[in-house]
Amino acid sequence: MPDDEYTAVLAAAEHHAREWLNSVGERPVAAAATPEEVAAALGTELDDEGRDPAAVIDELAEAIEPGLTAMSSPRFYGFVIGGIHPAALGADWLVSAWDQNTGSRIPTPGTAAVEELAARWLLDLFGLPPGSGVGFVTGGTTANLSCVLSARGEVLRRAGWDVERDGLAGAPPVRFLAGDAVHSSMALAGRMAGLGLPRTVGADDEGRIDVRGLEAALAEGAGPVIVALQAGDVHSGAFDDFAAAIDVAHAAGAWVHVDGAFGLWASASPSLRHLVTGFEAADSWATDAHKTLNVPYDCGVAIVRDESAMAAALGAHAAYLPVPGAVSEPYDHTPELSRRARGVSVWATLRSLGRAGVADLVDGLVASARDLADGLAALPGLEIVNDVVFTQVCVAAEDDARTAALVRGLVDDGVVWASPSRWRGREIVRFSVSNRGTDATEVARTIEAVERVLGELPSDG
């Protein structure tokens, strides 16, 4: 390749990346253009002749920029999305430049080694069993799916059925149980695994699973069963009673999975680890590094205690693939055979932060959530409707119409973006504090913006 083949295009990409990163904290958070407007700016027809790569990058950045939401803004509180740690971004750029298909250790020993270190460090941080299988997947949904597939295979093996060989047709039915507040990604994982939607067994007002309801549901039948628990309810941030629920589930022979898309990181903080007491006794866990750890998209993490169950469910086998050795291959832990080295960004972030830095990151998010809740609760006409135990803050106005108007007003104001939702029978505004940059200053700016928008709403909502 010519020495300068990439020089101009990388310079253009770096320029636009810097422009974006330097503006993301102050620009209006909501996108200013529709998909149709962005497409029109780019031109909808494919030209017969090509264009200079650097010019293409300039064209792309200029056309798409009005259609970008400032999701890395410290005042973006939607969808539980973190910011971008500098080490993670730098590592992610290198991963793209190296272009390693990290499916196997043999052709890609460099990135495989880094991912294996990242996996080992995550297990240590979380306090999970050493030797567990760890897969770096596309996100929280795929992490849940990977774990559910591992669970499905193992519980059916215990019942005398090899689902990897024979499929689901004719297999003993697998019961799939969860609390009433089960997240949609968990339900989707069950659907994709052929289990259908989970049967819900009850929950308290904060979304924590009803352990007595779980015990009663387990007692209604026998045979293969998977129980889904959660670390961090998407509305309240609440954590299930893991010790009690896992004891009940294991007594019935169930596989227990913990959906901890953002909440699993509580285990990395000495001051918050009580929230996950007993969770290490589960059989599998899922999280998403682009949330609390602030790694760029995409980077889910699937963890299975019994690595052999994970490999049986997800592993690939072909004559052209390396002969299985003493150490598992990366493709034994993910649904993908071909993929980028997502775990490298996790390694870089953990290396940059260290154990204490990860704890400080998580503690800082929780402190900001509590400060935000205190400030919003002091505003006339607003009510905090959840018990703020982690990073979620849910707010409601006097009635649903005024709450909906507040959401629209915040989008138009541009300083803050928060998610509208419906919880416990009423409209709410959900603030998910997930960005490492959401400090006391940004919390104060958020409260000021909400107060300003409230003041501009008509008295009837």
3D structure, described in words:
The protein has helices at residues 7-23, 35-42, 53-64, 86-98, 109-126, 140-158, 163-166, 184-192, 211-219, 242-251, 307-314, 343-377, 400-413, 440-456; strands spanning 133-137, 175-178, 199-200, 225-230, 255-259, 284-288, 300-304, 383-384, 392-396, 419-423, 426-432. It is an alpha/beta fold and 461 residues long. The protein has three domains: 7-70; 89-349, Aspartate Aminotransferase, domain 2 (3-Layer(aba) Sandwich), CATH 3.40.640.10; 354-456, Aspartate Aminotransferase, domain 1 (Alpha-Beta Complex), CATH 3.90.1150. The strands form two sheets. Strands 1-7-6-5-4-2-3 form a seven-stranded mixed sheet, sandwiched between helices. A four-stranded antiparallel sheet has the order 8-9-11-10. Helix 8 (184-192) links the parallel strand 2 and strand 3. Helix 9 (211-219) runs parallel beside helix 10 and helix 13 packs across helix 14. It is globular, with a radius of gyration of 23 Å. The mean pLDDT is 96.
CA-based shape: globular
By CATH, the architecture of the largest domain is named: 3-Layer(aba) Sandwich
- Main-sheet strand order equals 1-7-6-5-4-2-3
Number of domains: 3
Largest sheet: 7 strands, mixed
Rounded Rg: 23 Å
Output the number of helix runs.
14
**Computed structural class:** alpha/beta
Pfam families: Pyridoxal_deC
GO biological process, one term: carboxylic acid metabolic process
Protein name: Aspartate aminotransferase family protein
GO molecular function: aromatic-L-amino-acid decarboxylase activity; pyridoxal phosphate binding; transaminase activity
